[in-house]
Amino acid sequence: MYILVINSGSSSLKFQLLEMKDKKLLAKGVCERIGIDGQYSFKTDKINIKDQQINIPSHEHAIQIVINNLTCDENGVISDIHEINAVGHRAVHGGEAFDNSAIINDDVLAEMRGLIKLAPLHNPPVIKGIEACSKIIPEVPQIAVFDTSFHSTIPDYAYIYPLPYSYYEKNKIRRYGFHGTSHNYVSREAAKFVNRDIKQLKIVSCHMGNGTSITAIKSGKSVDTTMGFTPLEGPMMGTRSGTIDPAIVTYLMEEENMTAQQINDLLNKKSGFIGVSGISNDWRDICVAAKKGDCRAKLAQNIVTTQIKKYIGSYAAVMGGIDILILTAGIGENSDDMRRLVTTDMEFLGIKINSELNENMPRGINIDLSDTNAKVKTLVIPTNEELMIAEETMKKIV
What we know:
Elements: E1 2-8, E2 12-19, E3 24-32, E4 39-43, E5 48-53, H1 59-71, E6 84-91, E7 102-103, H2 106-114, H3 123-136, E8 142-146, H4 156-159, H5 165-171, H6 180-193, E9 202-208, E10 212-218, E11 221-225, H7 247-255, H8 260-269, H9 272-277, H10 283-291, H11 295-319, E12 324-328, H12 329-334, H13 336-343, H14 355-359, E13 367-368, E14 377-380, H15 385-397
Parallel strand pairs: 1-6, 6-8, 9-12, 12-14
Antiparallel strand pairs: 1-2, 2-3, 3-4, 4-5, 7-8, 9-10, 10-11, 13-14
Protein backbone atom coordinates (compact mmCIF):
# COMPACT_ATOMS: atom_id res chain seq x y z
CA MET A 1 0.00 0.00 0.00
CA TYR A 2 1.32 3.42 -1.01
CA ILE A 3 0.40 6.55 0.98
CA LEU A 4 1.27 10.05 -0.22
CA VAL A 5 1.68 12.48 2.69
CA ILE A 6 1.17 16.17 1.97
CA ASN A 7 2.06 19.10 4.24
CA SER A 8 0.86 22.33 2.63
CA GLY A 9 2.09 25.76 3.65
CA SER A 10 1.13 29.15 2.28
CA SER A 11 3.94 29.10 -0.30
CA SER A 12 5.29 25.55 0.08
CA LEU A 13 4.20 21.93 -0.26
CA LYS A 14 6.22 19.16 1.39
CA PHE A 15 5.56 15.54 0.46
CA GLN A 16 6.57 11.97 1.18
CA LEU A 17 5.56 8.73 -0.49
CA LEU A 18 5.62 5.74 1.85
CA GLU A 19 5.20 2.03 1.22
CA MET A 20 3.28 0.90 4.28
CA LYS A 21 3.95 -2.85 4.33
CA ASP A 22 7.55 -2.22 5.39
CA LYS A 23 7.00 1.43 6.41
CA LYS A 24 9.57 2.41 3.83
CA LEU A 25 10.11 5.95 2.61
CA LEU A 26 10.27 5.82 -1.18
CA ALA A 27 10.52 9.51 -2.03
CA LYS A 28 10.30 12.91 -0.42
CA GLY A 29 10.67 16.52 -1.43
CA VAL A 30 9.29 20.01 -1.34
CA CYS A 31 7.86 22.60 -3.68
CA GLU A 32 8.84 26.02 -2.35
CA ARG A 33 8.16 29.64 -3.25
CA ILE A 34 4.84 28.70 -4.83
CA GLY A 35 3.41 31.68 -6.68
CA ILE A 36 6.75 33.51 -6.49
CA ASP A 37 9.65 32.10 -8.52
CA GLY A 38 9.40 28.40 -7.72
CA GLN A 39 11.91 25.92 -6.33
CA TYR A 40 11.73 22.12 -6.25
CA SER A 41 13.60 19.37 -4.40
CA PHE A 42 13.09 15.62 -4.85
CA LYS A 43 14.94 12.73 -3.22
CA THR A 44 14.84 8.94 -3.56
CA ASP A 45 17.37 6.18 -2.95
CA LYS A 46 18.76 6.85 -6.44
CA ILE A 47 18.57 10.60 -6.99
CA ASN A 48 18.76 13.85 -5.08
CA ILE A 49 17.49 16.93 -6.90
CA LYS A 50 18.11 20.06 -4.82
CA ASP A 51 16.59 23.51 -5.21
CA GLN A 52 15.74 23.20 -8.88
CA GLN A 53 14.31 26.44 -10.25
CA ILE A 54 10.90 25.71 -11.76
CA ASN A 55 7.71 27.62 -12.38
CA ILE A 56 5.14 26.73 -9.67
CA PRO A 57 2.29 29.25 -9.94
CA SER A 58 -0.13 27.39 -7.63
CA HIS A 59 -0.61 24.45 -5.25
CA GLU A 60 -2.37 22.62 -8.07
CA HIS A 61 0.76 22.95 -10.21
CA ALA A 62 2.84 21.76 -7.24
CA ILE A 63 0.76 18.59 -6.90
CA GLN A 64 1.08 17.95 -10.63
CA ILE A 65 4.86 18.32 -10.43
CA VAL A 66 4.97 15.88 -7.50
CA ILE A 67 2.85 13.29 -9.34
CA ASN A 68 4.88 13.69 -12.54
CA ASN A 69 8.14 13.04 -10.71
CA LEU A 70 6.83 10.12 -8.69
CA THR A 71 5.67 8.36 -11.86
CA CYS A 72 8.20 9.43 -14.51
CA ASP A 73 10.35 6.80 -16.22
CA GLU A 74 13.64 8.47 -15.30
CA ASN A 75 13.23 9.31 -11.61
CA GLY A 76 9.92 7.77 -10.57
CA VAL A 77 9.35 5.24 -7.81
CA ILE A 78 5.91 4.05 -8.96
CA SER A 79 4.76 3.28 -12.47
CA ASP A 80 1.25 4.71 -12.35
CA ILE A 81 -0.70 7.30 -10.41
CA HIS A 82 -3.29 4.67 -9.51
CA GLU A 83 -0.76 2.88 -7.31
CA ILE A 84 -1.29 5.62 -4.74
CA ASN A 85 -3.93 4.25 -2.37
CA ALA A 86 -4.59 7.43 -0.41
CA VAL A 87 -3.33 10.92 0.37
CA GLY A 88 -2.85 11.96 3.99
CA HIS A 89 -2.85 15.68 4.69
CA ARG A 90 -1.31 17.27 7.77
CA ALA A 91 -4.07 19.52 9.08
CA VAL A 92 -3.01 21.71 11.97
CA HIS A 93 -6.36 22.75 13.41
CA GLY A 94 -9.45 20.58 13.73
CA GLY A 95 -11.07 22.54 16.54
CA GLU A 96 -13.72 20.64 18.47
CA ALA A 97 -15.20 19.22 15.28
CA PHE A 98 -12.57 16.51 14.82
CA ASP A 99 -11.41 14.26 17.64
CA ASN A 100 -9.91 11.90 15.06
CA SER A 101 -8.63 11.86 11.49
CA ALA A 102 -11.33 12.25 8.86
CA ILE A 103 -12.01 11.10 5.31
CA ILE A 104 -12.25 14.31 3.37
CA ASN A 105 -15.59 15.16 1.76
CA ASP A 106 -17.61 18.32 1.24
CA ASP A 107 -18.79 18.37 4.85
CA VAL A 108 -15.27 18.01 6.23
CA LEU A 109 -14.02 20.77 3.95
CA ALA A 110 -16.85 23.02 5.07
CA GLU A 111 -15.91 22.41 8.73
CA MET A 112 -12.24 23.17 7.96
CA ARG A 113 -13.20 26.41 6.24
CA GLY A 114 -15.24 27.33 9.31
CA LEU A 115 -12.11 26.88 11.43
CA ILE A 116 -10.05 29.35 9.41
CA LYS A 117 -10.80 32.06 11.98
CA LEU A 118 -9.01 29.91 14.59
CA ALA A 119 -6.07 29.07 12.30
CA PRO A 120 -5.85 31.82 9.65
CA LEU A 121 -2.24 30.98 8.76
CA HIS A 122 -2.50 27.18 8.78
CA ASN A 123 -5.88 25.99 7.51
CA PRO A 124 -6.12 27.90 4.19
CA PRO A 125 -2.99 26.31 2.65
CA VAL A 126 -4.12 22.86 3.80
CA ILE A 127 -7.42 23.40 2.03
CA LYS A 128 -5.53 24.51 -1.08
CA GLY A 129 -3.54 21.27 -1.01
CA ILE A 130 -6.71 19.20 -0.64
CA GLU A 131 -8.44 21.01 -3.49
CA ALA A 132 -5.37 20.59 -5.70
CA CYS A 133 -5.31 16.82 -5.08
CA SER A 134 -9.03 16.64 -5.80
CA LYS A 135 -8.40 18.09 -9.26
CA ILE A 136 -5.25 16.14 -10.14
CA ILE A 137 -6.07 12.75 -8.57
CA PRO A 138 -9.83 12.88 -7.90
CA GLU A 139 -10.24 9.11 -7.60
CA VAL A 140 -7.74 8.80 -4.71
CA PRO A 141 -9.26 9.08 -1.19
CA GLN A 142 -7.90 11.88 0.97
CA ILE A 143 -7.60 11.91 4.74
CA ALA A 144 -7.11 14.91 7.02
CA VAL A 145 -4.92 14.15 10.04
CA PHE A 146 -5.36 16.91 12.62
CA ASP A 147 -2.63 18.00 15.04
CA THR A 148 -5.31 18.97 17.52
CA SER A 149 -7.05 15.56 17.52
CA PHE A 150 -4.58 13.91 19.88
CA HIS A 151 -5.36 16.58 22.47
CA SER A 152 -9.13 16.09 22.27
CA THR A 153 -8.85 13.85 25.35
CA ILE A 154 -7.73 16.74 27.58
CA PRO A 155 -10.37 17.20 30.31
CA ASP A 156 -12.45 20.37 30.44
CA TYR A 157 -10.77 21.63 33.62
CA ALA A 158 -7.47 21.64 31.68
CA TYR A 159 -8.74 23.18 28.45
CA ILE A 160 -11.17 25.83 29.69
CA TYR A 161 -9.56 29.22 30.35
CA PRO A 162 -10.74 31.14 33.44
CA LEU A 163 -12.64 33.72 31.38
CA PRO A 164 -16.41 34.22 31.38
CA TYR A 165 -17.73 30.88 30.13
CA SER A 166 -19.69 32.64 27.37
CA TYR A 167 -16.44 33.24 25.46
CA TYR A 168 -15.96 29.50 25.20
CA GLU A 169 -19.59 28.95 24.16
CA LYS A 170 -19.65 31.73 21.59
CA ASN A 171 -16.04 32.05 20.39
CA LYS A 172 -14.67 28.58 21.21
CA ILE A 173 -11.81 30.09 23.20
CA ARG A 174 -10.14 27.11 24.86
CA ARG A 175 -6.91 25.15 24.92
CA TYR A 176 -6.57 23.10 21.72
CA GLY A 177 -2.93 22.02 21.78
CA PHE A 178 -0.68 21.39 18.80
CA HIS A 179 2.16 19.06 17.74
CA GLY A 180 -0.33 16.28 18.49
CA THR A 181 0.85 14.07 15.64
CA SER A 182 4.41 14.20 16.99
CA HIS A 183 3.42 13.59 20.62
CA ASN A 184 1.22 10.68 19.57
CA TYR A 185 4.00 9.08 17.52
CA VAL A 186 6.83 9.40 20.04
CA SER A 187 4.72 8.23 22.98
CA ARG A 188 3.79 5.05 21.09
CA GLU A 189 7.40 4.52 20.06
CA ALA A 190 8.56 5.02 23.64
CA ALA A 191 6.16 2.39 24.94
CA LYS A 192 7.35 -0.09 22.32
CA PHE A 193 10.98 0.77 23.02
CA VAL A 194 10.68 -0.08 26.73
CA ASN A 195 8.36 -3.01 26.01
CA ARG A 196 5.53 -1.65 28.14
CA ASP A 197 1.81 -1.26 27.57
CA ILE A 198 1.23 2.44 26.93
CA LYS A 199 -1.98 2.20 28.97
CA GLN A 200 0.18 1.58 32.03
CA LEU A 201 2.51 4.53 31.47
CA LYS A 202 2.72 8.17 32.54
CA ILE A 203 4.73 10.07 29.94
CA VAL A 204 5.92 13.65 29.59
CA SER A 205 6.73 14.36 25.94
CA CYS A 206 8.91 17.37 25.13
CA HIS A 207 8.71 18.40 21.47
CA MET A 208 11.50 20.97 21.31
CA GLY A 209 12.22 22.75 18.06
CA ASN A 210 11.77 26.30 16.79
CA GLY A 211 8.28 25.72 18.18
CA THR A 212 8.11 23.90 21.51
CA SER A 213 5.32 22.11 23.34
CA ILE A 214 5.27 19.81 26.35
CA THR A 215 2.47 17.24 26.76
CA ALA A 216 1.34 15.06 29.65
CA ILE A 217 0.29 11.63 28.34
CA LYS A 218 -1.43 9.24 30.72
CA SER A 219 -2.49 5.78 29.57
CA GLY A 220 -1.74 6.81 25.98
CA LYS A 221 -3.97 9.88 26.07
CA SER A 222 -3.10 13.56 26.22
CA VAL A 223 -4.30 15.02 29.52
CA ASP A 224 -2.61 18.43 29.32
CA THR A 225 -0.34 20.36 26.98
CA THR A 226 1.44 23.71 26.92
CA MET A 227 0.25 25.14 23.60
CA GLY A 228 -3.25 26.50 23.98
CA PHE A 229 -5.71 28.53 21.94
CA THR A 230 -2.78 29.19 19.61
CA PRO A 231 0.77 27.79 19.34
CA LEU A 232 2.03 30.89 21.21
CA GLU A 233 1.46 29.54 24.73
CA GLY A 234 4.02 27.52 26.68
CA PRO A 235 7.81 27.84 27.01
CA MET A 236 9.66 30.52 25.05
CA MET A 237 10.55 29.44 21.52
CA GLY A 238 12.67 30.60 18.59
CA THR A 239 10.71 33.79 17.92
CA ARG A 240 7.64 33.29 20.15
CA SER A 241 7.40 34.65 23.66
CA GLY A 242 5.55 31.72 25.11
CA THR A 243 3.39 32.36 28.17
CA ILE A 244 3.56 35.89 29.61
CA ASP A 245 1.43 37.99 31.92
CA PRO A 246 -1.50 38.99 29.65
CA ALA A 247 -1.54 42.47 31.19
CA ILE A 248 1.74 43.15 29.36
CA VAL A 249 -0.29 43.27 26.15
CA THR A 250 -2.61 46.07 27.27
CA TYR A 251 0.28 47.87 28.97
CA LEU A 252 2.32 47.98 25.74
CA MET A 253 -0.71 49.04 23.72
CA GLU A 254 -1.22 51.99 26.05
CA GLU A 255 2.39 52.95 26.77
CA GLU A 256 3.87 52.31 23.31
CA ASN A 257 0.73 53.01 21.25
CA MET A 258 1.03 49.56 19.70
CA THR A 259 -1.75 48.10 17.59
CA ALA A 260 -3.11 44.57 17.96
CA GLN A 261 -1.18 43.55 14.83
CA GLN A 262 2.07 45.02 16.19
CA ILE A 263 1.57 43.11 19.45
CA ASN A 264 0.90 39.93 17.49
CA ASP A 265 4.11 40.41 15.48
CA LEU A 266 6.06 41.19 18.65
CA LEU A 267 4.94 38.06 20.48
CA ASN A 268 5.13 35.67 17.51
CA LYS A 269 8.06 36.96 15.47
CA LYS A 270 10.34 39.14 17.61
CA SER A 271 10.41 37.45 21.01
CA GLY A 272 11.74 34.15 22.38
CA PHE A 273 15.39 33.33 21.70
CA ILE A 274 15.86 36.21 19.27
CA GLY A 275 14.15 38.71 21.56
CA VAL A 276 16.06 37.84 24.72
CA SER A 277 19.47 37.14 23.18
CA GLY A 278 19.44 39.69 20.37
CA ILE A 279 21.54 37.14 18.47
CA SER A 280 19.42 34.51 16.76
CA ASN A 281 16.24 32.46 16.86
CA ASP A 282 18.37 29.31 16.34
CA TRP A 283 19.15 27.37 19.52
CA ARG A 284 22.51 26.31 18.10
CA ASP A 285 23.62 29.92 17.79
CA ILE A 286 22.43 30.60 21.34
CA CYS A 287 24.55 27.74 22.68
CA VAL A 288 27.66 28.85 20.79
CA ALA A 289 27.30 32.42 22.09
CA ALA A 290 26.65 31.22 25.65
CA LYS A 291 29.84 29.15 25.63
CA LYS A 292 31.72 32.28 24.56
CA GLY A 293 30.37 34.12 27.58
CA ASP A 294 27.50 36.09 26.08
CA CYS A 295 25.29 36.97 29.07
CA ARG A 296 22.02 37.36 27.15
CA ALA A 297 22.52 34.06 25.33
CA LYS A 298 23.06 32.40 28.70
CA LEU A 299 19.96 34.17 29.99
CA ALA A 300 17.91 32.77 27.08
CA GLN A 301 19.20 29.28 27.92
CA ASN A 302 18.29 29.65 31.58
CA ILE A 303 14.81 31.01 30.86
CA VAL A 304 13.73 28.27 28.47
CA THR A 305 15.26 25.34 30.34
CA THR A 306 13.81 26.51 33.66
CA GLN A 307 10.38 26.85 32.04
CA ILE A 308 10.57 23.36 30.54
CA LYS A 309 11.61 21.90 33.89
CA LYS A 310 8.62 23.61 35.50
CA TYR A 311 6.28 21.97 33.00
CA ILE A 312 7.86 18.56 33.51
CA GLY A 313 7.37 18.88 37.25
CA SER A 314 3.82 20.19 37.00
CA TYR A 315 2.80 17.41 34.60
CA ALA A 316 4.29 14.80 36.90
CA ALA A 317 2.05 16.30 39.59
CA VAL A 318 -1.00 16.26 37.28
CA MET A 319 -0.50 12.57 36.47
CA GLY A 320 0.58 11.48 39.93
CA GLY A 321 4.06 10.54 38.79
CA ILE A 322 6.14 10.02 35.66
CA ASP A 323 7.55 6.86 34.11
CA ILE A 324 9.08 8.20 30.89
CA LEU A 325 10.46 11.58 29.82
CA ILE A 326 10.68 11.93 26.02
CA LEU A 327 12.96 14.45 24.32
CA THR A 328 12.23 14.92 20.62
CA ALA A 329 12.19 17.24 17.57
CA GLY A 330 15.06 19.33 16.22
CA ILE A 331 16.47 20.57 19.52
CA GLY A 332 15.46 17.63 21.69
CA GLU A 333 16.97 15.09 19.33
CA ASN A 334 20.13 16.99 18.39
CA SER A 335 21.19 19.29 21.25
CA ASP A 336 23.16 17.68 24.06
CA ASP A 337 23.14 21.10 25.76
CA MET A 338 19.33 21.20 25.91
CA ARG A 339 19.10 17.61 27.11
CA ARG A 340 21.66 18.26 29.82
CA LEU A 341 20.10 21.51 31.00
CA VAL A 342 16.49 20.29 31.21
CA THR A 343 17.49 17.17 33.19
CA THR A 344 19.97 18.79 35.60
CA ASP A 345 18.91 18.69 39.28
CA MET A 346 15.84 16.59 38.47
CA GLU A 347 16.89 13.56 40.54
CA PHE A 348 14.11 14.31 43.03
CA LEU A 349 11.66 13.26 40.28
CA GLY A 350 13.74 10.21 39.41
CA ILE A 351 15.24 11.86 36.30
CA LYS A 352 18.97 11.49 35.75
CA ILE A 353 20.84 10.94 32.48
CA ASN A 354 24.12 9.35 31.47
CA SER A 355 26.25 12.45 30.75
CA GLU A 356 28.82 10.68 28.60
CA LEU A 357 26.16 9.05 26.42
CA ASN A 358 24.35 12.38 26.12
CA GLU A 359 27.46 14.07 24.71
CA ASN A 360 28.29 11.23 22.30
CA MET A 361 24.83 10.04 21.37
CA PRO A 362 24.24 8.59 17.89
CA ARG A 363 21.49 10.39 15.98
CA GLY A 364 18.41 9.17 14.22
CA ILE A 365 17.65 6.21 16.49
CA ASN A 366 15.77 5.66 19.75
CA ILE A 367 18.13 6.06 22.70
CA ASP A 368 17.76 5.44 26.43
CA LEU A 369 19.74 8.24 28.08
CA SER A 370 18.84 7.22 31.63
CA ASP A 371 21.48 6.80 34.28
CA THR A 372 21.66 3.25 35.62
CA ASN A 373 19.98 4.23 38.91
CA ALA A 374 17.35 6.56 37.45
CA LYS A 375 13.75 5.72 38.32
CA VAL A 376 12.42 7.54 35.25
CA LYS A 377 13.36 6.53 31.72
CA THR A 378 14.69 9.50 29.76
CA LEU A 379 14.38 8.63 26.07
CA VAL A 380 15.39 10.42 22.90
CA ILE A 381 12.83 9.39 20.29
CA PRO A 382 13.20 10.89 16.79
CA THR A 383 9.79 12.09 15.72
CA ASN A 384 8.27 11.01 12.43
CA GLU A 385 5.07 12.95 11.84
CA GLU A 386 4.85 11.84 8.21
CA LEU A 387 4.83 8.15 9.15
CA MET A 388 2.21 8.87 11.82
CA ILE A 389 0.06 10.66 9.23
CA ALA A 390 0.48 7.73 6.83
CA GLU A 391 -0.53 5.24 9.52
CA GLU A 392 -3.58 7.30 10.49
CA THR A 393 -4.50 7.58 6.81
CA MET A 394 -4.19 3.83 6.30
CA LYS A 395 -6.55 3.19 9.25
CA LYS A 396 -9.28 5.14 7.48
CA ILE A 397 -9.14 3.27 4.18
CA VAL A 398 -8.40 -0.33 5.22
